[in-house]
Design a protein that fits this description.
Length: 222
């Protein structure tokens, strides 16, 4: 029985190798681009849940991000991703988590106080919430109106006419405002942008500092 020998021209062989290599690189690039776009989608989705104060959905969106390094190409998302990642690794015993606060304690026009654990709060006979912060000495901010909106849609409003530290102490009258998963929304009516004012290169829209948020029993110790 005759053996059939196949001869492949050397030039054709190398052409095939090159075509295969470039095809592989092209398909790999498309695959990577798809994965990067998918990760960007989940990062933006997480940003939405962050703004809504939904910790559960925020955590799930962050878990779906397979290529977190993609944020290195998007500086506007990098700070958010780093902050959000720290938040979802919180201690389950924490009473509250403040969403929307930057690492330097500034917030923008809004932030959310997320009730994370109501176990201790629910035992208070006379629950109060205390918000501590500082209003910067920025002319275009003043007078500044600060609004806290509770889960039952009731609101408390405060007006600051000058730069100063503040402590807001509020009696919490409706039990729905104390339940785990509830959100207290924080709004300001003005912001300022340091970069646009020529102060520095900080392009964030900022309002006030919030140092601390905590619940306590008014009849107990603060």
């Amino acid at each position: 029985m005759r053996k059939i020998k196949f001869k492949i021209n050397r030039k054709i062989f190398w052409v095939l190798i090159i075509v295969f290599t470039y095809t592989f690189i092209f398909l790999l690039g498309k695959y990577n681009a798809g994965k990067n776009n998918e990760s960007l989608y989940f990062i933006n989705q997480a940003k939405q849940y962050y703004g809504e104060g939904d910790i559960g959905k925020l955590r799930q969106s962050l878990k779906n991000i397979k290529r977190p390094q993609v944020v290195n190409e998007h500086p506007d998302l990098k700070n958010f991703y780093n902050t959000a990642s720290k938040l979802v690794n919180y201690d389950d015993k924490l009473q509250t988590i403040l969403l929307g606060r930057y690492d330097d304690n500034f917030i923008g026009k809004r932030a959310n106080i997320y009730i994370n654990n109501d176990q201790e709060i629910s035992s208070y006979k006379n629950p109060h919430i205390k918000v501590s912060g500082w209003v910067p000495d920025i002319k275009q901010l003043l007078p500044l109106k600060l609004t806290l909106e509770f889960a039952d849609k009731s609101q408390k409003q405060y007006t600051f006419d000058r730069s100063d530290k503040f402590e807001i102490d509020i009696a919490v009258e409706n039990v729905i405002n104390l339940k785990s998963g509830s959100v207290i929304r924080v709004f300001t009516d003005k912001t300022y942008n340091p970069a646009q004012m020529g102060v520095n290169s900080d392009g964030r829209d900022l309002s006030i500092h919030i140092y601390d948020v905590k619940f306590y029993d008014f009849k107990g110790s603060k």
